[in-house]
Every structure is written in structure tokens, then in C-alpha cells.
Amino acid sequence: MLHPNQFQVDDAWIAFQLNDDPICTVQDGEFNCLCLMDAASCFILSTAFVGTSEPGSSELEIRRLFKAAFAQKKMLPARLFLPTSGFENALRAEAKRQRISVVSAKEAELRAFTSEARQGFRQHLQLRR
């Protein structure tokens, strides 16, 4: 099982989906919230809302996700840990475009990193209802 203490700050990022179920809006449809996090510090570097119905738009949003994370750190990691998800191909393609090595991981292997952020996001959504 992976753990933050196995990494150095800025060495690796983790990409994952913050929400459990699509976020529904009346005006723009359904979205998922994708996140890039530093593996050592568990600091969320960037988030992006990606529409579930328009696969082509996800490429642009994922580029923005990486660009915002780069703006936070002024560097890119050597590795990106990526769970299997609906956006895996687009995230993998952008990481390769940025010359970042991609490491596939099971969702359970990443829980030590992602569970607190996902729980906080879930609570935030419940408060807004």
C-alpha cells in the first residue's frame, strides 16, 4: 500500500476524482471534479470540473488542470499516479505530453492520499444542498 511518507515533495502527483457521483447542474449538465495532488504533502494543486457528456471537452479541461498545478509548483513531477477512471486516457495522454511517467494504481492503493479530500468534498456538497 502506498503512503505519503514514501515520497518527496514534488516527486509525484496523484490524479483522482473528488466526487462519488456526477455533480448535476440545471444549466450545464453533469460534471466530475478531477484533482491533482502532491503525493508527499497531500496538497491539492488544482481541480477541474469536466463534463460527463462531452468527451472532447475533457482534453481542454485536463490541460487546464495540469497548467494550474504547474502554476502552483513551477515544476512538473517525475511521476503521476493514476487510478482507473473514466478520464484515465485523457489524463494519461496529457501526462505523456508533459513527459511525466504514468504509474497505474488501484483506487484502494491511493486511499491514504485521497480519502480525506474526497470526504471533505462530499461534506462540502452536502452543506450546499
Please describe what this structure looks like.
Helices cover 36% and strands 29% of the residues. With 129 residues, it is α/β, with parallel strands linked by helices. The chain has a single domain (4-127), classed as Nucleotidyltransferase, domain 5, CATH 3.30.420. Strands 1, 2, 3, 4, 5 and 6 form a six-stranded mixed beta sheet that branches. β3 and β4 (44-51) form a beta hairpin. α1 (55-73) crosses α2. The chain is globular. The relative contact order is 0.22. The model has no long low-confidence stretch (mean pLDDT 88).
Question: What's this model, at a glance?
Answer:
By secondary structure, this protein is α/β, with parallel strands linked by helices.
Compile the SSE list and pairings.
Layout: E1 12-17, E2 23-25, E3 29-38, E4 44-51, H1 55-73, E5 79-83, H2 88-97, E6 101-105, H3 111-127
Parallel strand pairs: 1-5, 5-6
Antiparallel strand pairs: 1-3, 2-3, 3-4
Helix pairs in contact: 1-2
